[in-house]
Design brief:
With about 220 residues, the chain is an alpha+beta fold. The protein has 9 helices and 4 strands. The protein has a 4-stranded mixed sheet. The structure holds fe (ii) ion (2 copies).
Length: about 220
């Protein structure tokens, strides 16, 4: 990879007017279908947690920065369509990053992470991809639900609404990544959670394994994986 002078970092991405507009439109368009929030707050959550995961596990600084960029951009494909937004997002990011002057090897790392973050087709193909998967799937929280009428909630909304706490614990010595959730069982059962999130958790387990860690899931204090 090239020297630090030409390296592209998150601040270059955040202040790019095209990317700024696409991020705004992603949130706006998904709002029309009542989907949970995919705003800049979610993008920054995934970006920052991706950095934290790789940093805590001792991966190189530049990989952390690429996880930050991929995390920030991972949902940008929703501006095209919700379906297969990982793939469309990867192609959008390719063009944007190329024009910003990012080296091809780094572009490959970022777009493969974006293109592999969805549970139906994703795969932890690199440390950066694994970090983005884990960071994205752990952002389950009631603050992301946009609908106000509980009667209109999908199961996906209910699970997010029921989640009052969600965080990752990373133990570099034990090589363990634990996803901790507190779920209000008056809103959803643990069964509902698994109905919606099992495929996401299995992808997280593969991502943690790629990072040579064991993955654990703790819901309301009980271990499930
Ligand atoms: Fe996504
Ligand atoms: Fe996301």
């Amino acid at each position: 990879m090239k020297g630090s002078v030409s390296l592209i970092n998150l601040c270059d991405i955040q202040h790019n007017p095209e990317i700024e507009m696409l991020m705004v439109k992603v949130h706006e368009y998904l709002g029309t279908m009542g989907a949970i929030t995919h705003d800049e707050e979610h993008a920054l959550y995934v970006a920052r947690l991706g950095v934290h995961i790789l940093g805590a596990l001792g991966y190189p600084e530049r990989e952390q920065r690429l996880a930050e960029i991929a995390g920030y951009l991972h949902d940008i494909g929703n501006v095209v369509n919700r379906h297969q937004h990982g793939l469309s997002g990867a192609l959008l990011a390719f063009d944007l990053l190329k024009r910003l002057g990012m080296p091809a090897e780094e572009i490959a790392t970022v777009i493969s992470a974006i293109g592999n973050h969805e549970e139906n087709s994703g795969y932890a193909v690199s440390n950066v991809a694994a970090a983005v998967i884990l960071a994205d799937k752990s952002n389950v929280h009631r603050s992301r639900v946009r609908k106000e009428d509980v009667a209109t909630f999908s199961t996906h909304d209910r699970v997010n609404y029921a989640a009052t706490t969600s965080f990752l614990q990373i133990d570099p010595d034990q090589r363990e990544i634990l996803m901790n959730l507190e779920i209000d069982s008056a809103i959803v059962s643990v069964f509902d959670y698994f109905e919606i999130f099992l495929s996401k958790m299995l992808l997280c387990r593969r991502a943690a394994n790629f990072l040579q860690c064991r993955f654990g899931l703790i819901i309301n204090g009980s271990h499930f994986l």
